[in-house]
Amino acid sequence: MYEIKFSMFFIIFVIAKIVGERIMLEIKNLYKSYGSRIIIENWSYQFQNGKIYGLIGRNGIGKTTILKCMCGLLIPNKAEIISDKGDLSREDYLNRDIIYVSDEPIYYHNLTVQEHFWLVCKVENYTQEEAQKAISFYTNKLHMQEYLNYYPSALSKGTLQRMMLIMGFLRRKPNLLLDEPFNGLDPVQLEEIIQICDEERKKRCMIISSHDIESLAELCDEYIVWGTNGIKVFSGKIDRKAVNQMIGDSYV
Ligand SMILES: Nc1ncnc2c1ncn2[C@@H]1O[C@H](COP(=O)(O)OP(=O)(O)OP(=O)(O)O)[C@@H](O)[C@H]1O
Predict the structure, then answer these.
(1) For the chain, what is the radius of gyration of the CA atoms?
(2) Which of 30, 31, 33, 34 maximizes ligand 1 atoms within 8 Å of its Cβ, making it the mutation to test the pocket?
(3) What is the residue range of 199's domain?
(4) Is 76 part of any domain?
(5) N or C: lower Cβ tally within 10 Å for the chain?
(6) Is the CB of 159 under 6 A from ligand 1?
(7) Does ipTM exceed 0.90?
(8) Is the residue at 136 inside a domain?
(9) What is the pTM of this model?
């Protein structure tokens, strides 16, 4: 009896492990140029469920370009983008299961913060009850309650950044790409965002582009670093020294 129980437990453990670590998103041979200027050449990578990835590199190296090619906001010259939904290469932004949260806030001038959140919930087919619960959860976590009736144009940069992040978290997509999410946040807000990103890891795969090595170090399982000799992958403990060595230059 004990052996049967143990075997069943072992099988369940192995299945959970396989499901938990399955590949959510695969990029094959990504090639992107602007005119004759090649930004990314033949880059491939597999991203897994439940992991957070950090994109690190100097200004203008191509981090935003990669994220936008993945989610469909930019058309690569060549690439295969494969997710649980299948081959997304020919799907546009709305049909991909990948959400991109830009560092440049995009919003409707005539909708309040709260209305933006409800709009996202509507797009994602939340029930009234689910929407209420999810909006309360994120606004409480990120202390946004007092801004719910504000128009976004009246928000400070950090508060706007939190609104954009909540809109990303409310999406029910398995892949979330965050472009410079830590910009403009004071230390308290920064810690809250780090905490919530850490919790979101249970629900999805996240890819974060940032120059804030300390914040990335608190969160990421793997790092994709642009060095002088191309893109390297690193999964150890990261700090400024390690980043400088990988980039082959004094970066941070
Ligand atoms: N629409 C465009 N047309 C031409 N060149 C572009 C265009 N968009 C970006 N670039 C160039 O491509 C390169 C990569 O830009 P990208 O924004 O991806 O860099 P990044 O690594 O995200 O930079 P940062 O850290 O400053 O955000 C830059 O040199 C940029 O000038």
Answers:
(1) 19
(2) 34
(3) 1-97+173-247
(4) yes
(5) N
(6) no
(7) yes
(8) no
(9) 0.89
